[in-house]
């Protein structure tokens, strides 16, 4: 049931303009912009302090079902695990 609710929320997020911030899994989607440089491209720079603060505040386990949708916010899903490592998240959920 929780997955179905999350799927509905994510579907709604896709239909909402990017300027509108949604609060999902303890993070505002507009705050993801702070991490975009560190999670895109072939050789991304290390994440900044603000990016890591966003990542550390997020409920990562809650985000697992939405990982395929992170590209909607300009992220390469394959860069999620290295980003977490660089922010000092030593025990991320297995989905990352």
Automatic annotation (TrEMBL):
Residues 1-21 form the signal peptide. The keyword Transcription does not apply. InterPro entries: Bifun_inhib/LTP/seed_sf (IPR036312), Bifunc_inhib/LTP/seed_store (IPR016140), DIR1-like (IPR039265), NsLTP-like (IPR044741). It comes from the Eukaryota. Residues 7-94 form the Bifunctional inhibitor/plant lipid transfer protein/seed storage helical domain. Keywords: Signal. Gene3D superfamilies: Plant lipid-transfer and hydrophobic proteins. The keyword Signal applies. PANTHER family: BIFUNCTIONAL INHIBITOR_LIPID-TRANSFER PROTEIN_SEED STORAGE 2S ALBUMIN SUPERFAMILY PROTEIN, LIPID BINDING PROTEIN-RELATED. This is Lipid-transfer protein DIR1. The lineage of its organism: Eukaryota, Viridiplantae, Streptophyta, Embryophyta, Tracheophyta.
């Amino acid at each position: 049931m929780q997955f179905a609710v999350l799927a509905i929320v994510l579907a709604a997020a896709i239909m909402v303009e990017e300027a509108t911030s949604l609060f999902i899994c303890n993070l505002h989607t507009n705050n993801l912009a702070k991490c975009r440089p560190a999670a895109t491209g072939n050789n991304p720079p290390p994440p900044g302090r603000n990016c890591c603060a966003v990542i550390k505040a997020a409920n990562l386990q809650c985000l697992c079902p939405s990982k395929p949708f992170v590209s909607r916010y300009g992220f390469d899903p394959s860069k999620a695990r290295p980003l977490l490592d660089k922010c000092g998240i030593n025990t991320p959920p297995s989905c990352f």
